[in-house]
Amino acid sequence: MKLLVYSHFFAPSVGGVETVVLSLSQGLSELREANGGSEFQVTLVTQTPAGNYDESVLPFRVVRRPALHQLWRLIRSSDVVHLAGPALAPLLLGLLARRPVVIEHHGFQTICPNGQLLIEPQGAPCPGHFMAGRHGECLRCNSDEGRFASWRLWLLTFLRRFLSAQVAANVVPTRWLGDLLQLPRITAVPHGLAASQPISRIATPSNTPVIVFLGRLVTTKGVHVLLKAAKILLEQRRSFELLIIGDGPERAALEQFVRDFQLEAKIRFAGRLNDDQLEAALAQAAAVAVPSLGGEVFGMVVAENMVRGLPVVASDLGAFVEVLGGTGLTFRTGDAADLAAVVGRLLDDPSTTTCLGQGARQRMLQLFSFGAMIDTHARVYRDVCLATRKLPGRNSD
């Protein structure tokens, strides 16, 4: 079967979508038929320049920044078109070419003009204004972009929603997201992670519990909420350290907050770390904090640290609650006092961290395996081919 995977962003760009698309494309490329041949011939199309990335090691073809007529030919020669999000150009071309189109939703672009389900001016979770018909709220939310841009984003949401209702299948990583999108032909396929050894945790030299944040330093990740919680814990004379791993446009402002409130002794910014440095840092972690405000449809950082056997404290966003499944701790999204209270309970009872970490790892291995993700995607592609009466290798209309 000839499978075209379209992802606007791909390596060397770094992010959750890029990670999922890479692992999915690799896994599908390695599936074999009974005769030993490849079941899927994968071509990945992206708008990301190659830079210094060595794509020759990949088991699939990569086409970067094709012209519109090239994209049309690639779609016409495919049996199934998989889109990482409702990207309009390939979505329209796939429907025009009458190819089975599968959209995997990595965001909220069909129910929120800014795609984040976040009220931008306040950085607060959106209660669902677009789907509730409160469109004036949507236009005000994006008004900082200018009136034309705000109206454009709003109108494109209607278009993406209409077109997504026409495709062969809509794939979501959580049932929670599927319930929000309310699109036809939805299948929930959790992101799968390869099994690995649990992290070998070691105590810090000072035996001070270390809480770790791992991610991009952008507003939606809620790091400022975590810093406010740290300030509360410090005022309570709690013994802890906070390690911020990652970089981004908010770093300078966050570092200034730490200086303003004299938190330097408790909070350290590590910046970006390579794989070995990251594992060494996480080996000293008592817990991982994920205080995101919105924009999360699964939570790769939650899942990755569950696999490591680390306890996770996360905001009570629907995706996080579903992935954790009771094997982590949650707090009210955006509420620094509640986050401080939850972390305080962990600090008071260190034995809880071990139980949570073990339960989280077991849950990931049972329900979020890499093999299950690949097999379920393959089944979706086979089903849409059969449903459209289109056999692999036959590309005529």
Number of helices: 14
| Helix proportion range | 25-40%
For the record, what CATH class of the largest domain applies?
Alpha Beta
Q: Kindly, what is the distance between the CA atoms of the first and last residues, rounded to a whole number of angstroms?
A: 16 Å
User: What overall geometry do the principal axes of the alpha carbons give?
Assistant: globular
- Element string (H = helix, E = strand): EHEEHEHEEEHHEHEEHEHEHEHEHEHHH
Number of strands: 15
User: What's the gyration radius in Å?
Assistant: 22 Å
- Given as residue ranges, the uncertain stretches (5+ residues, pLDDT < 50) are 391-397
Given the helix and strand composition, which structural class is it? Answer: alpha/beta
